[in-house]
Amino acid sequence: MRATASDLERRLRLPYAALMIGANVAGALVVLAFVLWVLPLPPVDDPAAARRTNVLAFAAYLLLAVPAGTLLVLRMLAPLRRWLAEDRPPTPAEQRQTLLIPAREVALHALLWGIGTVAFAALNLAYDARLALVVGLTAALAATATCAVAYLVAQRVLRPVAARALAHDVPDDPALPGIRARLLLTWALGTGVPVVGVTLVGAGVLTGVLDASADRIAGTAVVLGGTALVVGLIVTALAARSLADPLDGVRRALARVQRGDTSVEVEVYDGSEVGLLQAGVNRMVAGLQERERLRDLFGRQVGVDVARQALERGVALGGEEREVAVLFVDLVGSTRLAHDRPPGEVVELLNAFFGVVVAVVAAEGGSVNKLVGDAALCVFGAPLDHPDAAGAALRAARRLRARLAAELPGCDAGIGVSAGTVVAGNVGAAERFEYIVIGDPVNEAARLTELAKRHPGRVLAAEEALAHADGERDAWAVGDRRVLRGRAAATGLAAPRDAVA
Q: Which residues contact 492 (CB under 8 A, 6 or more apart)?
């Protein structure tokens, strides 16, 4: 369960400061242990006094540095805690301050370690310049390691806060050091600092700065090597997780997108280029969601087959001759229907009516080319080929009549079917065009629909359509011939032998 803003604010009051200061105190204790018991030191006149002085100075420094460091950390967190306590999105300035906290932590720790390094080097200078050099270099190397660990830990601990800061907006410029910096930190801790330490010990013995026996040098090498193994493993694990976790999230999101799930969202919690990658995946998914919505809308507007063909082959103005069958269906008494019923009820009835039309036509492999008021123009054989366009249109006409009678008894409609050669294609302008079907079969189907409204069975087909059909002729009976409105030649009429599909 995702933590609330108030929960995050409470977590940051003292626990975070204690964690950061604790990491530095641990580093300081390691330095003290190395100086007192591990590293070979140059001989001094009074080693017991030097040891006692360093221990007391170390305790005094901790008594001053720990409270000062805690106050500085809490002050650094104040802008972050403010917008969390108010439970609101951060301003751009607050967001950047939040993302830069790990880097600012490093600067704060480096300041405290720098003060301590200079102070202890100066303190030991009174005993021996070589001792001051050894103490100063040891503290400097420990400071490097501690600051790097603190950076990686801070980035890990503040991940939920960074996710909330980046939830509403992701800046284009990374606020944190990215992959290169993390890998360099890992190298510095796991390889650089220990190797430098061993090298300095060897150089000190060779130059006479350090006077130690072979056993002491061997013990120092063993301790430094063991420390390098342990610290290197910890830091490498932290750095690996800081990169692997977000990349695993991106990988899982992309896998879901590949399976067709465009509802996925990657949590953005990294202020470096890794966070830009996470945000990029979210923008990509949002684009896919918009594309799917447009595809769905496009398919609903022009028909699924037309939309699929346009997406696969591209869109160009123009047409082509095709052999098709046309089914035209129009409500009977739609004017009276609109007058007698409330508009909402009329729309509901039309939606139910067109729902049946679309279902029946699609089941037979056709497409609804156009919805005009209370009428629908349906085409079989365009834009996709159909092995038996005429037969499918005739079968759809009979089944459509049967379903309307069974499911919408108060919805009477005339249905006309024709077949022949038409010109089908995209007509209009480059900015706005429409897939249309033009030709005599379209006009004939419309005229047959007008006549079918006065026919007892409400379904009429042109005799020519039966000639093009396979396996549907026996279901139709050919009647007389009529000259349809707007036509010169007579059309042979055919009607279903019964009303049952």
A: 462, 463, 464, 478, 479, 480, 481
124, 161 contact by CB (below 8 A): no
For the CA atoms of 235, 63, 72, 194, the dihedral, rounded to the nearest 10 degrees, stands at -20
Question: Which conformational region is residue 260 in: left (phi greater than 0), alpha (psi within -120 to 50 degrees), or beta?
Answer: left
Query: Which residues face 368 on adjacent strands?
Result: 378
Place of tokens 């300035």: 93
For residue 288, give every residue at least 6 positions away whose Cβ sits within 8 Å of its Cβ, in sequence order, or none: 257, 262
Closest CA to 84 of 167, 168, 171, 8: 8
Distance, CA of 163 to CA of 200 (rounded, Å): 43
CA–CA gap between residue 420 and residue 208 (Å, rounded): 107
Cβ within 8 Å of residue 459, ≥6 positions away: 397, 398, 401, 414, 415, 416, 417, 452, 495, 496
Q: How far apart are alpha carbons 409 and 403 in whole angstroms?
A: 9
Here the tokens at position 396 are 């759809």
pTM above 0.70, yes or no: no
Taking CA atoms, 410 is separated from 173, 200, 337, in Å, by 64, 98, 10
Integer Cα distance of 314 and 80 in angstroms: 51
**What is the length of the chain?**
501
- Who contacts 257 (Cβ-Cβ below 8 Å, separation ≥6)? 264, 284, 285, 288
CB-count burial class (<10 Å; 0-12, 13-18, 19+) for 128: middle
**CA end-to-end distance (rounded Å), the chain:** 56
Q: Can you give the pLDDT of all 501 residues of the chain as single tens digits? A: 455 666 676 666 667 778 888 888 888 888 888 878 888 888 888 888 988 998 999 899 888 888 888 888 888 888 888 888 888 888 888 888 888 888 888 888 888 889 998 999 999 998 888 888 888 888 887 887 788 778 878 888 888 888 888 887 877 766 566 677 777 777 776 677 777 877 887 888 788 777 777 777 788 778 777 877 787 787 788 778 878 888 898 899 889 988 888 888 888 877 777 877 888 888 888 888 877 775 665 455 445 555 565 555 555 556 788 899 999 999 887 667 666 778 878 888 888 888 999 999 989 988 888 888 889 999 998 888 889 999 999 999 999 999 998 898 878 899 999 999 998 877 776 666 677 888 889 999 999 999 998 888 899 999 889 988 887 888 888 888 888 887 778 888 999 987 434
User: What is the dihedral angle through the alpha carbons of 183, 184, 185, 190, rounded to the nearest 10 degrees?
Assistant: 90
